[in-house]
Design goal:
Blueprint: H1 6-18, E1 35-39, E2 45-50, E3 57-64, H2 78-88, H3 97-104, E4 114-117, E5 122-129, H4 133-148, H5 154-170, H6 174-186, H7 201-206, H8 209-219, E6 225-231, H9 235-246, E7 269-276, E8 282-289, H10 300-324, E9 333-340, E10 347-355, H11 360-377, H12 381-400, H13 408-420, H14 427-437, H15 443-448, E11 459-466, H16 476-483, E12 512-518, E13 523-528, E14 533-538, E15 546-553, H17 561-567, H18 584-590, E16 596-602, E17 606-613, H19 618-630, H20 636-650, H21 657-669, H22 683-688, H23 691-701, E18 709-714, H24 718-729, E19 753-758, E20 765-774, H25 779-803, E21 811-817, E22 823-832, H26 837-854, H27 858-875, H28 879-892, H29 902-908, H30 911-921, E23 927-932
Parallel strand pairs: 2-6, 7-11, 14-18, 19-23
Antiparallel strand pairs: 1-2, 3-5, 3-6, 4-5, 8-10, 8-11, 9-10, 12-13, 13-14, 15-17, 15-18, 16-17, 20-22, 20-23, 21-22
Helix pairs in contact: 2-5, 2-8, 4-9, 10-12, 11-16, 12-14, 19-24, 25-26, 25-27, 25-30, 26-30, 27-29
């Protein structure tokens, strides 16, 4: 059994650095030599990197160093509005041709194609296939048009107002109301306090067209832009495309200064205590703002300082995690870090917690006390060693997978380099530097970190909480008193005794009695002496990843109606007790520096495990599975701690209108189901919850390992998998009993049903339209149902969003299940204005009826196919996709080799198939759920 200790860490880290030269901390951090970067004569900056994962795909990103902070008073919200207009139409792709074209080459709107606007920047994402010169050229045409050729005609601007206002409407609610009250204190005397990117409703409704045009001309200019290109491309060719598309544009002759807005310091401690009747949780944020502005990380010394900061944060958050896992947790979760605020120009040391509504002050005291404990006593050497091991493991994993990294992981790094001059040296340099610097960082350096940040000025405390009868609102004086922890009362952290292993019981290994290979799937299946089956597929998709899922039929459908209600909300607590007599905190400490985890689950018709690890830590995954099977702890104190955390999260969730709607809607539809106990737990649920019964039922579900099949996908070693399976899985208790999925026969209400739920004060509605019922399952019908959802989504976006400007987002989803009973489900959903709900329902039904009557348009079927093919070609080279295929095949009793026919299945689907499935299932028994405000009955 390997044990992580200071000696082990030394062996891990020091050999590389023993012979290394003394580090020159004054040297500059280099820029990644694998990235081609440059600046055009007009000031536009570009980054280009060749990266072959995924194949035949390129990620283009247009970054504009301008956001809502630069808006005039009359332009509030127009930086974000401009983002909408870029998708709405451009010179080369007028009106809706842009989205139409991208969908035709497989780029899905909202899922692949997207953008965001913040205070300081606006960023556009465009992933496109790179398998043809035409698609690549059009990709550059699009980002060029976004940058300089958006269609800003009065008609198109006015048409888009409705969509932007719908997005504004979605953001309404308790969080926005409370933010409006605390932001002026958080961003005291700063321009950031009154420049939220979404803007103001009255301006969005009434601004004159010239205000948007002037914003575009002022701020969308070359010297505030960057173009980032990462993917399966030729670097030199991409550089020429950037020059051809962007070099010709000039900056305005009298360009406006790109002002940088500061966040002024203040001597006071500002306290914001905000409550709302619709607030769904209680949160505490303690902010110590830096005096100065962030400085660029330029030297290796800066890089080391960042590492010290990261180690400090890791250790402190490990301590907060230990408190969270205690029998009397002070909060549901809590963490501290030093980093950005709303403003790019201000960083802060911040502590955050989500707490029970009646523990606001006590939780704040815990955060303050832990900061003071770290400031007064620092950390222990063993804590630092564990943090170093965690850091090293993550960097080592990234380094090992450096040639298998997805392109999306790189673009954000180059964006930060452009916007904030953040270093981008590349993982090869970073890993080499980590191996040299990490061992040299001393405990005293980490202990010094907090001393410059925790202070009595430039401080803000924000508390947001529900507002309800019987809940006393805390006072500002109580908050100020809680900040003044008596240092004399704070004692040093006490380190618990180190754990030496995950297992405490002797293991009697079994054997492999049968081995089979499947050449088509590239899998090997081991049948173990106790009946356990292990199927694994070795891939080269990632160098340092192994994924695992284990599955068996059974699940909670094996429980009585009374028992399921008693254990439904206790099942999540079972793993909180730990295993092998070890507390959760002991396990977490032991696993520092090891990347491996596995967690059991009990579903409706199955139970099993999900986990992952690196190849070198795979044995710990197996040990964890063995321990959960054979030696799960029974710990009532751990359950009580779990219940407190869950109560803090769920008790007020129903005060939020959308959650209240879900609870009411599905409770109504399940009123004839004696097993239904609500979606979320409440006080009554906890009163009837039986933890010991949940534990007993868990032991029943995992008593027979012979009923399980394990799947592993990734960089697995044949000998390691077989050795670990023989030792840790073949030794599990088993019998010859085999269970099947049980259909208990309970169903949601059927018929033409309309359920209106009134909740909330904002003018917001939410619509859910559902068709469901029993159905004979077939793979073809299931795929046709999925296609129907995707194709209808395309039409709903065109009609409800683009033509009617009635929604910001809308989707349709279709699926079929085989287990425990053949069934279909089809759902249409969208948020909207209450005054438009009925009209938009009618519009959605009209689009569905067109497909039922005439079938979908062929161009939309082509869009679906292209999108699915693009996703499939990417997914088929992902471990997660293969693992999902194996588990679905197990549940459905189908041949896993069917995945190899997916491309054929996509190409073969027809408009007639989609029409037939719609006619077969979506012509009767429609269920409509509507969330409406309280003032509309």
């Amino acid at each position: 059994m390997k044990q992580l200790s200071k000696i082990a860490l030394g062996l891990l880290l020091f050999p590389v650095s023993i012979f290394a030269q003394e580090i020159d901390y004054s040297k500059a951090i280099p820029f990644d030599s694998t990235v081609k970067t440059g600046k055009l004569k007009n000031g536009l900056t570009y980054y280009i990197k060749k990266n072959a994962k995924p194949e035949n795909k390129v990620t283009l990103r247009l970054v504009v160093n301008a956001g809502s902070i630069l808006e005039s008073n009359e332009q509030q919200g127009l930086a974000h509005f401009m983002e909408h207009m870029c998708f709405n139409g451009t010179k080369r792709f007028p009106k809706n041709k842009l989205v139409d074209y991208l969908q035709s080459i497989g780029v899905k709107f909202g899922q692949h194609l997207n953008a965001y606007t913040s205070f300081d920047e606006t960023v556009y994402f465009l992933p496109i296939p790179s398998d043809s010169p035409e698609k690549l050229e059009n990709g550059f045409n699009i980002i060029e048009d976004w940058a300089f050729n958006a269609d800003l005609t009065p008609q198109e601007i006015d048409k888009e107002r409705g969509v932007v206002l719908e997005e504004y409407r979605i953001g309404l609610g308790a969080d926005k109301r409370m933010m409006g009250r605390y932001l002026p204190k958080m961003m005291h005397n700063s321009h950031y306090a009154d420049r939220l990117p979404i803007g103001k409703k009255e301006i969005l409704e009434n601004f004159t067209h010239d205000k948007l045009v002037s914003y575009y001309k002022d701020w969308y200019r070359p010297n505030l832009m960057s173009v980032i290109v990462v993917g399966d491309i030729d670097v030199a060719a991409m550089e020429q495309k950037i020059i051809a598309h962007f070099d010709k544009y000039q900056n305005p002759k009298n360009e406006k200064t790109r002002l940088v807005y500061e966040v002024p310091n203040h001597k006071e401690t500002f306290v914001a205590i905000e409550s709302d009747k619709e607030a769904s949780s209680t949160r505490i944020q303690l902010v110590y703002k830096d005096y100065g502005t962030p400085t660029a990380k330029i030297t290796i010394g800066d890089y080391k300082a960042d590492l010290v900061e990261g180690l400090f944060t890791t250790v402190l958050n490990n301590r907060l995690g230990e408190l969270t896992n205690s029998p009397t947790p002070p909060f549901t979760f809590g963490y501290s870090y030093h980093g950005g605020t709303f403003a790019r120009t201000k960083e802060a040391y911040q502590s955050f917690a989500m707490v029970q509504e009646d523990k606001q002050i006590s939780a704040l005291k815990v955060l303050v006390t832990e900061n003071e404990r770290a400031k007064k006593f620092g950390f222990t050497q063993s804590e630092l060693d564990r943090a170093k091991a965690e850091y090293f493991a993550q960097y080592e994993k990234a380094f090992n997978d450096r040639d298998k990294t997805n392109s999306d992981n790189f673009v954000g790094e180059y964006q930060s380099n452009f916007l904030k001059n953040s270093p981008a040296p590349g993982i090869e340099w970073e890993f080499a530097m980590i191996k040299q610097i990490l061992p040299k960082i001393e405990l005293k350096e980490v202990n010094e970190f907090i001393k410059g940040f925790v202070k009595e000025d430039n401080r803000v405390v924000v508390i947001t909480a529900p507002e309800k009868e019987g809940l006393k609102k805390v006072t500002e004086q109580e908050v100020l008193d809680a900040l003044n922890v008596n240092s004399d009362d704070v004692i040093a952290y006490k380190e618990s005794e180190a754990v030496t292993g995950l297992l405490r019981n002797e293991i009697k290994s079994g054997s492999v009695i049968k081995k089979e290979n499947n050449a088509k799937l590239g899998t090997t299946t081991l049948v173990l002496s106790n009946g356990v089956k292990v199927t694994y597929k070795k891939t080269d998709f990632k160098n340092d990843e192994v994924l695992m899922e284990a599955i068996s039929f059974g699940g909670t459908n094996m429980y009585s109606n009374d028992d399921i209600k008693k254990v439904q909300f206790a099942n999540g607590a079972l793993t909180q007790a730990g295993f092998s007599g070890l507390k959760l905190n002991d396990i977490n400490k032991f696993m520092s520096g090891k990347i491996a985890n596995a967690s059991p689950y009990i579903g409706t018709t199955t139970e099993g495990f999900r986990g992952n690890s690196t190849p070198k830590d795979l044995e710990y995954l197996f040990q964890t599975v063995h321990a959960y099977f054979t030696d799960l702890n029974l710990d009532k104190d751990a359950f009580e701690g779990y219940k407190q955390k869950q109560a803090a999260f769920f008790d007020n969730l129903a005060s939020q209108p959308n959650y209240f709607f879900q609870q009411e809607f599905y409770t109504y539809l399940n009123k004839e189901n004696p097993r239904f106990n609500g979606i979320f737990p409440n006080k009554k649920s906890w009163e009837t919850t039986d933890y010991e019964l949940a534990y007993s039922k868990y032991k029943e579900r995992f008593a027979n390992a012979g009923d399980f099949e394990f799947y592993f996908v990734g960089n697995v070693d044949d000998k390691a998998i077989e050795d670990f399976s023989v030792k840790y899985l073949a030794s599990l208790p088993a019998s010859a009993k085999r269970e099947k999925a049980v259909d208990l026969g309970y169903r949601m209400l059927k018929g033409d049903i309309k359920k209106v739920v009134n909740k909330g004060t904002d003018p917001k509605s939410n619509v859910t339209i559902m068709y469901y019922g029993d159905a004979a399952y077939s793979a073809k019908d299931a795929f046709s149902m999925q296609a129907l959802g995707e194709v209808l989504t395309i039409k709903l976006i065109e009609e409800l969003r683009e033509n009617e400007s009635g929604v910001y987002g809308v989707s349709a989803r279709g699926s079929m299940n085989k287990v425990p009973n053949g069934a279909f489900n089809f759902t249409i959903g969208f948020p909207c204005g209450p005054e438009n709900a009925e009209k938009l329902i009618a519009s959605a039904m009209k689009e569905l009826q067109k497909i039922i009557d005439n079938g979908p348009e062929e161009k939309d079927v082509v869009k679906f196919k292209e999108g699915e093919l693009l996703d499939y070609k990417k997914d088929i080279k992902e471990n997660r996709y293969w693992l999902s295929n194996f588990s679905k095949s197990f549940v459905n009793g189908s041949n896993a080799e069917e995945v190899l026919k997916t491309e054929e299945q996509i190409n073969n689907i027809t408009a007639k198939d989609i029409q037939n499935i719609a006619k077969k299932y979506l012509t009767k028994d429609k269920v409509i759920g509507m969330l409406m405000p309280e003032n509309i009955k």
